[in-house]
Design goal:
binds ligand BES, seven-stranded mixed beta sheet, Aminopeptidase, alpha/beta, Leucine Aminopeptidase, subunit E, domain 1, binds zinc ion, eight-stranded mixed beta sheet, binds manganese (II) ion, 509 residues
Length: 509
């Protein structure tokens, strides 16, 4: 998708499709309170073109509601699409992001290849952030998961133009440029998540990360079995030992020029390219979905791409532990005891009693977190499709977040205001930590009870983050969208890329 920015008056833009936003300005609630839709534009010709249909009451300007006018009078566009942002009092740049996605997804199946989206002109919608959100929403909306259809027709919008009439400001321009980087990075993560297990093996995951790193200007190393053994990553290896596919330990580094001190942020991702459950094998219903068990790793790689291109002044290291989780003659068994990577040579690694081989994500992350700390990370964030239990707790509209440090979490909370993603902070606690103590070794890899399963999983990771400020994102309920929405196709969501990026930027501009 090519993106352009135009400052021309809307009514003079010649295009197949011009999209403009509207809000419902009705504040009353009684039975007589009719919707009062209003176009968010100062363009008189556009307003006149839409006046009749807006007065008809057919269009209520609900969030992502659409109305199409052909051959609108008095303007040069061939079609005018009005997209609702919902109630004025609740319209934000996040509503604009979705509206842009809705406009793109309206355009695609109609075979229309160009779209101009007018930035809302309203004092409650700042043009800079809206410009960014619009472009992000357009990229997110443009993505479709049908990569392997033999008769695939690429219906992507070829040219997406943000129209900001008269608003030729640096805020609009830089928002626009950031939006391109962020939207493309989120889609990069989604492309990885969408790949099936037979295509995206751990080694292939490593190659894709390395190719991205080369293009974006990041340092990248991709290791395998030998290095995992040399580092004594016994927890990571306990999962990898059961697969014919060699594992990949992906290390990306971002070191901006002139930044020699201050924090080093460690971004750690779960990269299970397919999770069968191992010897504690999963039921076959929905097992095909477990190709997306590397979504946490993909989110980190997508975020690193955006970091490399947006260049915040803070050092970042990212570790993705990629492997399959398979049943096999060599696979680990329930009851096995594994030794995790030691943080330093003078400290032994913690011992883990394997209760359920399907609780494998926490195992690979344990060593990933330790390795990030060994490489100097002062602050940690990890993302993982870690537990089904987080979906039970929060459903599919909030992802879970856990942290051992309020100050670090406050920065993440701030990042959510820009990203527009919904994360809900969940508790940690000694009572939960107690549930994963082992009789034979230090800890068990499950808490035994399904109750609080997302929290005991988080406490497992906490054992390895120790006192290093740390955030754990459990995205299992959010990484895959089951039904089509007006602004995004069903399939991989790319959740967490934008929030991780903004959290990183909060440390270095
Ligand atoms: N990858 C799964 C978690 C998952 C579930 C992700 C549903 C996406 C959708 C994880 O490895 C897993 O199997 N977790 C187990 C933990 C249990 C054995 C303690 C689970 O959630 O059932
Ligand atoms: Mn599992
Ligand atoms: Zn898993």
């Amino acid at each position: 998708m090519r993106t352009e920015l135009s400052y021309s008056p809307l009514s003079r833009i010649e295009t197949e499709l011009l999209a403009v936003t509207a809000v419902d300005t009705q504040t009353g609630t009684g039975p007589d309170a009719r919707p009062a839709p209003e176009l968010l534009t100062g363009d008189g010709a556009l307003k006149s073109a839409a006046a009749q249909v807006l007065a008809s009451g057919e269009f209520k300007a609900g969030a992502n509601e659409t109305l199409l006018l052909h051959a609108p009078a008095g303007i040069r566009a061939r079609r005018l699409l009005i997209v609702g942002l919902g109630k004025q009092a609740r319209a934000t740049m996040h509503s604009v992001r979705n509206a842009a996605g809705t406009a793109v997804r309206f355009t695609k199946p109609r075979g229309i290849r160009e779209l101009v989206f007018a930035l809302p002109e309203a004092e409650f919608l700042p043009p800079g952030p809206c410009s960014r959100a619009t472009v992000e929403g357009a990229f997110v909306g443009d993505f479709d998961p049908d990569t392997y259809r033999s008769d695939r027709q690429d219906l992507s919008v070829q040219t997406f133009t943000v129209a900001a009439p008269g608003a030729n400001t640096s805020a609009v321009d830089s928002g626009f440029r950031e939006g391109v980087i962020v939207g493309e990075s989120q889609n990069f993560a989604r492309t990885l998540v969408n790949e099936p297990g037979n295509k995206l093996t751990p080694a292939e995951f490593g190659r894709r990360a390395a190719a991205m790193a080369k293009e974006a200007g990041l340092q990248c190393e991709v290791h395998s079995t030998e290095k995992i053994k040399e580092l004594k990553m016994g927890a990571f290896w306990s999962v990898a030992q059961g697969s014919e596919e060699p594992p990949a330990l992906i290390v990306l580094r971002y070191e901006p020029e002139g930044v020699q001190d201050g924090p080093i942020l460690g971004l750690v991702g779960k990269g299970i390219t397919f999770d069968t459950g191992g010897i504690s094998i999963k039921p076959s219903d929905n097992m095909e979905k477990m190709k997306y068990d590397m979504a946490g790793g993909a989110a980190m790689i997508g975020a690193m791409r955006a970091i490399a291109l947006l260049k915040p002044k803070v050092r970042v290291v990212s570790i993705v532990c990629a492997t399959e989780n398979m049943p096999d003659g060599k696979a680990q068994k329930p009851g096995d005891v594994q030794t995790a990577m030691p943080l330093s040579a003078d400290k032994p690694g913690k011992t883990i009693e394997i209760i359920n081989t399907d609780a494998e994500g926490r195992l690979v992350l344990a060593d990933g977190l330790t390795y990030a700390r060994q490489l100097g990370a002062t602050h940690l964030i990890n993302a993982a499709t870690l537990t089904g239990a987080i979906g039970v707790a929060l459903g599919t509209h909030n992802a879970g977040a856990f942290s051992n440090d309020d100050e670090t979490y406050a920065k993440f909370q701030g990042a959510l205001e820009t990203s527009g993603e919904k994360f809900w902070r969940m508790p940690l606690g000694d009572e939960y930590a107690e549930m994963i103590k082992s009789d034979i070794g230090d800890i068990k890899n499950t808490g035994g009870s399904r109750y609080g399963g997302a929290i005991t999983a988080a406490e497992f990771l906490h054992v390895f983050a120790e006192d290093t400020p740390w955030i754990h994102l459990d995205i299992a309920g959010m990484a895959w969208i089951d039904e089509n929405r007006s602004y995004v196709a069903r399939g991989p969501s790319g959740v967490a890329v934008r929030s991780i990026l903004e959290w990183v930027r909060s440390y270095g501009g």
